[in-house]
Automatic annotation (TrEMBL):
It comes from the Eukaryota. This is Guanine deaminase. PANTHER family: GUANINE DEAMINASE. InterPro entries: Amidohydro-rel, Guanine_deaminase, Metal-dep_hydrolase_composite, Metal_Hydrolase, Metallo-dep_hydrolases. Keywords: Hydrolase, Metal-binding, Zinc.
Length: 475
């Protein structure tokens, strides 16, 4: 059977680096078996272009005047069980918030049916908001963690999934039976997830000590050994809140600082990424840079839980990989568009703080193109997926969003450039502007009227855009 290629013709927007935004008009993007096999620029006549090609089966997708493709959004930090109370319980700082809202809510996931129902809504919502790749924290419950993996697999998201580890300083109703039980269940979860991922490998298990406060030395060292044995990534939390930092350092007095706790337990490195990193000393910044550890920037959560303002430019200036995270439910929104906007305001706030302290400030705030980078290629770099996703380079997977910038709450008035349309989508847009969501070439979400058909179909559907189905020589 001859594979059908999909040809996308129109405007493409992506980043090649944090400082390099590329807008390609009259672009031809050819996808085969979910992989980008060709990207051509400045093609004025798509029909003539296709006629000169020499393959057989293809489907042509023409983007409209106000439409463009961007890479799929990457969420480097989200808590799947916390979506059930996202948007509520925002009155307390981190440590009180965990005990009052988070741990009671997560403990409910010992009920496997409850977990399955909650996770179906959660993953669906993240996909609908354009998150094609997500790094998930689950709970301590092995059975429920498996249900999350099943749900992600069925809905087609690319994901890192972690069974959470907690063997100390946790409520009696939400703590693992023993350190060995935690490690044994983690091994079972890793084996289950790797088997479930199969040949497409869209799902990856990630070793997930919740944070140093809730993990003993034997547990952290055991998790580091598992990560090394299976060659897996590691995720956790770091320097989010002053009270958390003080508590963590009191538990490990022989370590120089909070970051050094993870270093001394073998948990930092190129395959590790830490959420938040708000209150970092120079020594800690240098340690992240030296170990090539990445950072998930979760500005909404940092504001909502009164944790502080992360200086992303400081991290980037040290060569540290940075991506965006929603941190649901510390952050109240499941959309990376919100993370972009929160990151924008956090950057502006750093400038205001510097100006108030020094009377003036030459601090350079994050620009829209840099925020798009953090939401796509930057996030891919944090997860070690930069050679697979993050932009539209030939050979990468086609993880993409088809955007209609003149839809929903966005009104395009007058003669706007493509960059202005991109800005309006980033700052005013919503899921209403996302016509199609693709993961590895398969359409997994999109405008609501066709969502019921998505579970069993990878076909591209027509929502009023020009779409040609042709059987002629193709690319």
């Amino acid at each position: 059977m001859v594979e059908t290629s999909h040809i996308y013709y129109g405007t493409i927007v992506h980043t090649l680096s944090v400082k390099n935004l590329e807008i390609i008009q009259q672009a031809v993007l050819v996808v085969s078996n979910g992989i980008i096999v060709k990207l051509d620029r400045n093609v004025k006549d798509i029909d003539a272009y296709i006629s000169s090609a020499s393959c057989t089966n293809y489907v042509l997708h023409r983007l409209g005047e106000h439409e463009f493709l961007i890479p799929g959004l990457v969420d480097t930090h989200a808590h799947a069980p916390q979506y059930v109370f996202a948007g509520s319980g925002m009155d307390l700082p981190l440590m009180d918030w965990l005990n009052t809202y988070t741990f009671p809510s997560e403990s409910k996931f010992k009920d496997e049916q409850y977990a399955q129902d909650a996770y179906a809504k959660t993953v669906h919502r993240f996909l609908r908001n354009g998150t094609t790749t997500c790094s998930w924290f689950a709970t301590i419950h092995l059975a429920a963690c498996k249900r999350l993996v099943d749900t992600i697999h069925d809905l087609g998201q690319r994901a890192y999934v972690g069974k959470v580890n907690m063997d100390q300083n946790s409520p009696d109703y939400y703590v693992e039976a023993s350190t060995q039980a935690s490690l044994d269940d983690t091994r079972l979860f890793i084996d289950y997830t790797k088997a479930k991922a199969g040949h497409d490998r869209l799902i990856t298990p990630v070793v997930t000590p919740r944070f140093a406060v809730s993990c003993s030395t034997p547990l952290m060292r055991g998790l580091a050994d598992l990560a090394k044995e299976y060659r897996l990534p590691i995720q956790s939390h770091l320097c989010e809140n002053p009270d958390e930092i003080k508590f963590a350092c009191s538990l490990f007095p022989d370590c120089k600082n909070y970051t050094d706790i993870y270093q001394q337990h073998g948990l930092l490195g190129p395959d590790t990424y830490m959420a938040h990193c708000v209150h970092m000393t120079d020594d800690e910044i240098n340690l992240l840079a030296t170990t090539q550890t990445g950072v998930a920037h979760c500005a909404n959560s940092n504001f909502s839980l009164q944790s502080g303002v992360c200086d992303v430019q400081r991290l980037l200036s040290h060569g540290i990989k940075v991506g965006l995270g929603t941190d649901v439910a510390g952050g109240f929104s499941p959309s990376i568009l919100d993370a972009i906007r929160s990151g924008f305001w956090a950057s502006k706030m750093k400038k205001v703080i510097e100006r108030d302290m020094h009377g003036n400030s030459d601090y350079v705030c994050l620009q829209p193109s840099e925020l798009l980078f953090l939401a796509t290629l930057g996030g891919a770099q944090v997860l070690g997926l930069q050679d697979l996703i993050g932009n539209f380079v030939e050979g990468k997977a086609f993880d993409a969003l088809w955007i209609d910038a003149d839809r929903g709450n966005v009104d395009l008035i007058g003669d706007l450039t493509i960059f202005q349309k991109l800005e309006k989508f980033l700052f005013n847009g919503s899921a209403d502007n996302i016509l199609h969501v693709y993961v590895q070439g398969r359409r997994v979400s999109g405008v609501p009227d066709d969502e019921n058909d998505l579970a069993s179909s990878g076909d591209t559907l027509n929502h009023g855009v020009a779409l040609d189905h042709t059987t002629k020589p193709s690319i």
